[in-house]
Design a protein that fits this description.
Number of strands of chain A: 6
Structural class of chain A: alpha+beta
CATH superfamily of chain B: P-loop containing nucleotide triphosphate hydrolases
Number of helices of chain B: 8
Distance between the termini of chain A: 32 Å
Strand order of the largest sheet of chain B: 4-3-5-2-6-7-8
Radius of gyration of chain B: 18 Å
Oligomer: heterodimer
CATH architecture of one domain in chain A: 2-Layer Sandwich
Bound molecules: guanosine-5'-triphosphate, magnesium ion, zinc ion
Strand content of chain B: 15-25%
Number of strands of chain B: 8
Helix content of chain B: 25-40%
CATH class of chain B: Alpha Beta
Number of domains of chain B: 1
Shape of chain A: elongated
Number of helices of chain A: 2
Largest sheet of chain A: 3 strands, mixed
Chain lengths: ~110, ~220
């Protein structure tokens, strides 16, 4: 699925950054994944582990940081975590909810030596 | 050991290809629509019914995605519209790079409207950006009114929600209001259309939506 393409991009960014910082190897890669990306953690780990072989990240751990779906209601101002994938205010049921977190897909940091 | 903060958005290769396509469609003023549904909900039937009205006024083309066969492409050509087939082999979705490759076959830089019929599947296609302006999610009444709740990521990706085969509604336990309500729990801005490709009920409103999209795109290109 789309996890393979994403894992490749994560690895590319990690290696590029590591080289720019004069690293010999990468020990850990931390990635923030918002729930709205519909990413399967196991598939992403599997793809990352397969792709990292024979690179400077061959022994790197993969730190998966799960970001929940949260929103702010434009009607009543209530801020909360949204259940399931419902973008509905849990307090007043309004559909005018702005997503605060849950869309992110970013590489947070790497540990190098 | 040293920790380096990056905080950079991750784009897959497909996201980058799609961004390039989106620029190209913008420059050319091509309104691009991606249609997604389960197999057999009536994507090709809908196109067969509405393309005539659109192609008489605009330069229109269709890209058809299926695992196998050129059947859908041939159905579109029969109604007098340019079409090209992508056979994915095993893949359950289309990717931006495949769209880019097929554009030359349908006069791809001179179109007012490009319609992409994605592979029949309610899960994977929504995860791959194709550079489109809008996503249509089609559901037929024989599939059940709970589908929006079961496939939330698909409905969240949608801009309009079309319920097809309403001529069959009396024969199945499908509650149209409930289906719409469920879809709006996932995305409150989803605009709904209730149609039948058989009786042609509601098709004029869908044609109207396409025309509005084509005209809006011309203004911002
Ligand atoms: N009764 C009825 N049948 C319909 C309607 N729309 C489509 N069909 C039938 O549903 C079947 C599938 O239609 P298609 O248009 O091929 O569906 P599709 O979504 O393009 O299918 P795939 O491309 O294979 O995923 C055909 O036998 C159509 O005749 C409708 O509004 N009413
Ligand atoms: Mg079809
Ligand atoms: Zn509220």
């Amino acid at each position: 699925m789309h996890e393979t393409g994403i894992a490749q991009s994560i690895l590319d960014i990690a290696i590029k950054t590591a080289l720019e910082n004069g690293a010999k190897k990468i020990n850990n890669v931390a990635v923030k994944v918002g729930k709205m990306n519909a990413i399967d953690e196991a598939s992403l780990r599997f793809a990352f582990d397969a792709l990292k072989e024979e690179t400077m990240a061959a022994n790197a751990t993969f730190e998966y940081i799960d970001v929940p779906l949260t929103g702010k209601c434009e009607e009543c101002g209530y801020e909360s975590e949204l259940e399931g994938y419902f973008v509905l205010c849990p307090k007043c049921s309004s559909g005018r909810v702005t997503i605060l977190t849950g869309n992110e897909l970013e590489i947070a940091y790497i540990d190098i030596e | 050991m040293e920790k380096i903060e990056i905080n950079q958005k991750v784009l897959s290769k497909n996201d980058m290809d799609a961004a390039e396509l989106r620029n190209r469609f913008k420059k050319n003023g091509t309104f691009t629509v991606n249609i997604m549904s389960s197999p057999g909900s009536g994507k090709t039937s809908l196109l067969e019914k509405i393309l005539g009205a659109l192609s008489s006024k605009y330069n229109v083309a269709v890209i058809e995605g299926d695992l196998q066969t050129e059947n859908d492409k041939e159905r579109i050509e029969k109604v007098g519209v340019k079409a090209v087939q992508i056979q994915t082999g095993g893949a359950c979705h289309l990717e931006a790079a495949e769209i880019e490759k097929k554009l030359p076959f349908v006069d791809g830089d001179n179109l007012d409207l490009l319609i992409i019929e994605n592979v029949g599947n309610l899960v994977c296609p929504s995860e791959y950006d194709l550079g489109q302006d809008a996503n249509i999610i089609l559901l037929s009444v024989t599939e059940g009114d709970d589908k929006p709740l079961k496939y939330p990521t698909m409905f969240f990706a949608g801009d309009i929600f079309i319920i097809n085969k309403v001529d069959l509604a009396p024969y199945v336990d499908f509650d149209i209001n409930k289906a719409v309500e469920n879809a709006k729990k996932i995305k409150s801005t989803l605009e709904e259309f209730i149609i039948s490709c058989k009786t042609e009920e509601g098709l004029d409103k869908v044609i109207d939506w396409f025309e509005r999209g084509i005209l809006a795109k011309k203004q911002c290109s």
